[in-house]
Give the backbone structure.
Amino acid sequence: MANIKSAEKRARQTIVRHARNRWYRSRYRTFVKRARHYIAEGDQENAPDAIRRAAQALDRAAQRNVIHRNKASRLKSRIMVAFNKMKLKVAA
């Protein structure tokens, strides 16, 4: 445990920030899972909304520095590629 007053404050701040970051991380993971689930099912009705929500959650997490912006971009790109493949498969 920290003995210096500033180090004690940093420890308190770390606990609060960790909890907040965990909330954003859990949120984006949930939305990404949901989007992938709808894509895997071939659900063209619910997939676009799920993808939009996942993109918003990823952007929010990147904005708050919970994840790197390139990771958010990569995940969004992979979801869109999978969605476009699903649309082609359903159309064929």
In short: Residues 5-41 form the longest helix (37 residues). The chain has a mean pLDDT of 95. Residues 40 and 86 are 8 Å apart (CA to CA). The two ends are 63 Å apart (CA to CA).
